[in-house]
Structures
1.
Amino acid sequence: GIYSTNSAFIPHLSLHPSLSHTHPIMNAGIKPSDAALQAYTDLQLKHKYHYIIYHLKDNTSIEVEETLSAEEKFEFDDFHGKIIKHQNEPRFVVVDFKGKSKDGRDISKIFFIYWSPDSAKIKPKMVYSSCENSFRAALTGISKRIQANDPGDIDEDALNAQLH
């Protein structure tokens, strides 16, 4: 009858395969590529990079989009600009951030930045959000997670404050 509990009569319980990529729950299966994980290991253990910017490729995997080799000079304004230029879609960023301790010693910490600009559309935000925790959990040795929704959230003063 009309009140049957048979799932065939409840369309939202069965998801057509061609629609699965648009369903937020399905996005939780997005995994980092081997290269994405290797880049992090190279940053963390071999100090090969200053930072890594990750993006979602085709909503199927987390991939390296851009890096800055440790052999190159780290310019904060360049780093900041490479993140905030992404106004329509989030990014994951890992940075080996260096600064001074309160007593003047050189210190560095690995920050995980979840850049999710207010101007981004809701769907990409949902997709990135759905896979952020599992991705971050795969990256051992992160000192701090920083949620950034506007450029001021990750300016130099904001990151320096996170060192302490």
Note: Helices lie at 34-46, 76-84, 122-137, 156-162.
2.
Amino acid sequence: ANPGYSDSMEEPRAPLLETPYVGEAGYSEEYEEMPGGGEHLDLGTEYTEQEQPLKQLYIPFDLTEASELFPPATQPADMEPLSQALLQRSEQLTPSPEDQAAVNALLAKVTSTLEALSVRQEKLDGMAIEEIRSVGAHKKGTLLAGSTMAEMAIILKDWPTCEAVEQLAKILKERLSAKETQTECSVNVVQSNVTVSDGVTEVVVMTACFPQSVQQNQSDDTPQPENRVLVADIDKALTAIRHTRWFDENVTHTGVKILARLLKDLSQRTPQLGCLTDWHCELLAYFCVLSHSTAQPLSVAVAFKRFLQLMSTGFFLPDSVCIDDPCEAGEVKIHQNLTYEQMEEVTWSCQILFRLLTYGAYKEILGLEPGHQLDLNSSIEYGGIKIAPPQRVFPPTPDPIQ
């Protein structure tokens, strides 16, 4: 292994959900026998812990898996125009070679400085650097055009303190300034992260420790320093490491990365999809391209259509089997941290977008029509057809400033 690196980080602990078999009855045989009769909770009834009924999770309808049971009534639409539009948008979303070279140059300088600290066993507030990891969208290859930021995470032997972060920032500023560079780098501490910028690109260095160190310090009765890095910041860095490792080990198909970029862009341009994180988009891209019964990966066009179909049928609603997070212990659904309102907004907006896609408005969906912004809250006319938004279960949250 290279200096500063090791394979001691915990491996991903849960496999990505394989698509269950959906029989003619529309439900999986895996869930056929459910204790408690598969009843849903009655919100108006108070239950004791022993009487709490078990909820039966449903499997949203996936036409890709049920295509033999539901053959098309008419000749299938030609997917070539959609494929060309998706590839055109993907090229627009891919960072330019100049931007990638600029990010790689600054990232290499920061990495070499951190590796030198690790090899020489120089300590930060008494703690040596155990591991150095590149994380985030730049490492995964899903960075969007216009973004010139790379992320890293360093693992210290013990729970990092604010003094350790400040000391790291000071060392990086001194060492980077000493090197022969055409531009001067600014180094700042932002929420327990060290940010290095040359005015064009930026590298964010997150600081963490091994999970065992946090558990040991929390269970120890001895007084602990109050200036430690917050647990939430440590967990964010460790989560980024797990996500990046899983992505590197499992995603080799180019179509997954292309679709991940497209979904990230769609979530940024559509306010109702703003609750989807990069991790949501990356796992959904993986699922739509690779997780199905056929042996070959789906094309980007078919996978993009499948994404809108799945989300329209309630893939992100509360009782959906959805996808288990492969980087979390147990059956943790990737959408379980969303509110009911956010789950409905995702489903509601994808229903409209899928209807637009069915009528051929893929350029409007992908943002290939300059100056044309879709307003999903209003009726949309396309090709002489008026598409009205469906009624919401949860009305939009009113503006708090009134």
Note: Residues 1-45, 49-53 have pLDDT under 50 and may be disordered.
